[in-house]
Amino acid sequence: MARPTIADIADKAGVSKGAVSFALNGRPGVSDATRARILQIAEQMSWRPHSAARALGASRVDSVGLVIARPARTLGVEPFFAHLVSGLQSGLSARSISLQLLIVEDTDAEIEVYRRWTSEHRVDGVILVDLTVKDPRIEALRALELPAVVIGGRGGKGALASVWADDRDAMLSIVDYLAALGHRRIAHVAGTPNFQHTQRRIRAVRDAVPRLGLLDAPSLTTDFSDAEGAATTRKLLSQANRPTAIVYDSDVMAVAGLGVAMEMGVSVPGDLSIVAFDDSILTQLMHPALTALSRDTFEFGRQAAEVLLEVIAEPTKVINLRTADPVLTVRESTAPPTP
Amino acid sequence: MARPTIADIADKAGVSKGAVSFALNGRPGVSDATRARILQIAEQMSWRPHSAARALGASRVDSVGLVIARPARTLGVEPFFAHLVSGLQSGLSARSISLQLLIVEDTDAEIEVYRRWTSEHRVDGVILVDLTVKDPRIEALRALELPAVVIGGRGGKGALASVWADDRDAMLSIVDYLAALGHRRIAHVAGTPNFQHTQRRIRAVRDAVPRLGLLDAPSLTTDFSDAEGAATTRKLLSQANRPTAIVYDSDVMAVAGLGVAMEMGVSVPGDLSIVAFDDSILTQLMHPALTALSRDTFEFGRQAAEVLLEVIAEPTKVINLRTADPVLTVRESTAPPTP
DNA sequence: TGCAGGAGCTATACCGGTTTATCACTTCAG
DNA sequence: CTGAAGTGATAAACCGGTATAGCTCCTGCA
To answer: Which CATH number fits domain B167-294: 1.10.357.10, 3.90.79.10, 3.30.70.20, 3.40.50.2300?
Structure first.
C-alpha cells in the first residue's frame, strides 16, 4: 500500500483513528504504553501527515509567504534575497513550515496576492520587505487579519511585528569613518526616496554634518539602478567643488560609480573614496575592492522567521526585534583625501 | 460572514453543493442559465476555492516545487535563478499554481525534500536544475513517481521530460567568433566537471580545434567560484605561450578573470579577449564591458512550467523541448589578437 | 402508448486528518 | 455501598470541496 493514513495505523494498532491522532500530536487522551506503540507503528510505516487534510480540519496551513515586488531584472544581482530566503527557510524548517515565494511587478499586485492567499487559505502569515513611507500594504494586511512581520522597518503604529537593523547607526559609522580619514566633502547617492530606510539614511547623513564639521553632504536619490547610480556620479564629479568621498546606498550603484570615476580619470581611492552600503561578492571582485557595510542577512531571515511564527501563534503579540548592527568592512576603495 | 463556502453559494442560489461545484468548474451537469446565476453569486460573494479542501478531495495540490542545492552564498550573484523563478511563476500563474522554493545544501538533502513533499502531498511535480552526470535524483524521482521536468539537460534514458538549450552550438558560436577574429590560442575556464552542461561545453571546444585550425584550446575545470576563476586565469596568463582569448563558463568567473588580467598588466581586449558564457548586469558594469552569451532565462522558465504542467496532466508523456539558441552579445572585451 | 435516453439536478459518500461528545471502567471520598 | 471524579478510549461530526449514483422530468421515436 502506498502512503499510509492514520486509519491504517489505527487498524494495525487496534485502536481508533482518534487515539492515533492524539498520540501523534502529543496530546493527552492515551496511555503512555499505547502512545509508544502507535508512534512506533507510525514510524515503521513511515507515516507523514497529509498537509491538505491537516489544513482542512485545523486552520493552519504550515506555510508562510514572501512576495517580492520588484522587476525580476533587478533581482538576483544582489545576494540579499537569496540570503534572506535561505535564512527564512532555516528558521522555518525546524517546524517543517514551507515558504511560498512570489515575484510580482508592483505593490498592487502584491496586495492582490495577499487577498488570494487569504481566501484560498494558502499561508498562515507573510513577510513584508521594502517598506515604504505610508505603505498601503500595512493597512491591507490588517484588514485581511493576516499575520505578518515587517523586515527592515517598523510596522506602522505598533500594529505589525518587525525585525530591523539600525540604518541610522550604520550610516553614521560610515560617515564617522570617512570624517576620521579627513574627508569634509562627502556625497550620498541614495536609493528610492519613498523607501523608509532611504529616508532614515538621508536623515542620518544630514544630522552628521554639523557634528563632524563637514562642508557639505548632499543626498541624491535614485531608483537603485546602475544607470542612475552612474549618472548621479557623473554629475557629482563634474561639479566645481566635487566631493572627495561618495557613499552609495547599494553595491550595484557603487560599482557603477567606480566605473564612471575610472572613465573620468578620477583615481580611486586617490582622488575619491567610495563606500557601498551593501556588501556582496560584487564589491570584492572590483579593482580596487570596495569598502562596504556588511550585514548578516541570513541571520536576519532566521530571526524574521521566528518572529513570524510567534505572531502566528499569538496574533495580538507585538514584537519589534532589533538585530545586530551591520559592520563596516574596510577594503581598498577608501583613503585619506589628497590635500 | 467571512470566507464563503460553496455551501453558502448553494443556499443563496437555491441549488445543491454539487450543482455549484459543477458550475464553478465548467463541467456539464447544469443548465447555462443556472450556471450563470451561480457564477454571478460566487463572484458577488467573492468566493475562492479553499486550496486544502480541493487538494484533499482530488489528488492535485496546485503547487509545484523547485529545490536548489547550492550554498546560499553563491546564489543570487547570478540573476539566473531570479529570472528562472520569475519565468516559472509566469508560466504557472495562468492556472494559479503556486511555486514552492527550497534552498538546500546538497543533493542528498534535495532528495530528502522530494520524499517529504511526496508523502505530505505538498507538490504535484518538481523542476530539476543543475543536472549532473549519473544524477541520483533521476532515479529517486522515478521511484517516488513524482512528475518532473529537467532544466538544461536531457532527462536520462527518455524517462523525465526536459527543457534544454543547445550548449554545444552556443559554445561553437563563441569559438567560431573568436577564430574569425584571428585567435588561434583559446582557453576555456569551465565549471564543475560533473555538471552535464560543463561536459558538453568542453566537448564542443575540443571538437572545434581541428576544424578551425586552432593551436590549442585547453579546458580547465573549476567550482564556478570567483576564487578558482581568478586562480585559473593567473595560471593561464603565466604560461610561456599564453592564450590570446579566454572563454569563461560563468559571468562571475569572467569578471574575476578580468581583474587578474588588469592586475598582471595584460590589457583587455588588446592582449587578451574575454568572453563570458553567461550574461548579466555584471558583465555590463565592467570596464571594458564583457562580450557575453545571453540567454532568455525568463522564457526558459516559462516553457519549463508549461512542460511540467503537461507532464503532471499526463505522466506517461515524454517531452524534450529545445529552446531558442542563446545569442552572443559582443561588447568591448573582444578584439583581434595583436600579432 | 410505451419506453429508451438524456438533460438537469439532488443526495450522499469520500478525501485524511482534528475535535468533541460519550462511554466504560477504575479509584477514591463520604 | 454509593456517588463523584478522573482516565483511556471510541464513535461520529466536521472541515470544504469533488465524484458518483440515482432521481425526476422531458423529448423523441417506434
So the answer is: 3.40.50.2300
Q: How far apart are CA B181 and CA A321, in angstroms?
A: 59
User: Under DSSP, is residue B47 helix (H, G, I), strand (E, B) or coil?
Assistant: coil
Q: Where are the alpha helices (DSSP H) in chain A?
A: 6-13, 17-24, 32-44, 51-57, 80-93, 107-119, 136-144, 167-181, 196-212, 226-238, 251-263, 281-285, 297-313
- Mean pLDDT to the nearest integer, B49-69: 87
**What is the pLDDT, as a whole number, of residue B35?**
93
CB atoms within 10 A of CB A273: 24
Helix (H, G, I), strand (E, B) or coil at A187: strand
> Which of A56, A77, A285 lies closest to B280 in CB terms?
A77
SS3 assignment, position B313:
helix
How does A42-66 read in b/e, with b if 16+ C-beta sit within 10 Å? beeeebbbbbbbebbeeeebbbbbb
The pLDDT, as a whole number, for residue B111 is 95
Q: How many CB atoms lie within 10 A of CB B314?
A: 11
Q: Residue B53 carries which side chain, given as an amino acid letter?
A: A
Find which of A263, A281, A284, A296 to mutate to test the B interface (most B CBs within 10 Å of its CB).
A281
Strand D nucleotides within a 7 Å radius of protein CB atoms: 7-21
Question: Would an 8 Å CB–CB cutoff place B322 in contact with chain A?
Answer: no
Domain A63-165+297-326 has CATH 3.40.50.2300: yes
The burial class, CB within 10 Å (0-12 / 13-18 / 19+), for B157 is: exposed
pTM: 0.88
Check residue A243 and give its pLDDT.
97
Q: Which is it for the CA torsion A251, A257, A258, A260, positive or negative?
A: positive
C strand bases under 7 Å from protein CB: 7-21
The closest alpha carbon to A189, from A234, A243, A249, belongs to: A249
Range scoring the smallest mean pLDDT among A223-232, B51-60, B206-215: B51-60
- B positions 110-129 inside 8 Å of A (CB): 116, 119-122
Please tell me the CATH code under which domain B6-48 is placed: 1.10.260.40
Helices (DSSP H) in B220-294: which residue ranges?
226-238, 251-263, 281-285
Question: Half-sphere exposure of residue B288, counting CA atoms within 13 Å on the CB side?
Answer: 20
pLDDT, residue B20, reads: 93
What is the rounded distance in angstroms from the CA atom of residue B235 to the CA atom of residue B315? 49
